[in-house]
User: What shape does this take?
Amino acid sequence: MNLANRITVARIFLVPVIMFFLLVNFKLPPIRIEQFSITYNQIIAVLIFIIAASTDSLDGYIARKHKLITNLGKLLDPLADKLLVSAVLVSLVDMGKMDAWIAIVIISREFAVTGLRSICAAEGIVLAASKLGKWKTAAQITAIIALLVNNFPFAFLNIPFDVIASWIAAIITIWSGIDYFVKNWHVIQFDN
Assistant: This one.
């Protein structure tokens, strides 16, 4: 269990902590500024989410720089990413902050690409993250943060940035999923 893998495992352990702060009502009055309000729970959850999301780049950087890439890390890193994003998306739907169809599209794409990666791995092919995949991750994290902070500071300008970011995340997620399958279609074999 090297440093990179420990960081990845820490990200996995942060998932239930984030969900706890999002879904448990502490019955504290929210912070209010004019018509904008946000709960203390959301502030704590978004801070933990930002820390967890930022460890994704950190563990990969450490693993590559110090040649600490392991099979365990190859398994845990994408699992941690999917757990983090999926758990927060489900929480956002439960909180009424995200349309369920967007969460379903994003989570379905993650399962589909994970399945494709498994097929490729069985064939000895490594399916590296694409540029679109990195854009997808950035778009998802941006949308999640915007939703977690109740569209701050755009709420003051009456700009629905959180909704726009959610749609952009869904579109890029679909686009990147299609891209993975088109580029690797030759790996999938259908029996007649």
Notes: DSSP finds six helices and two strands in the chain.
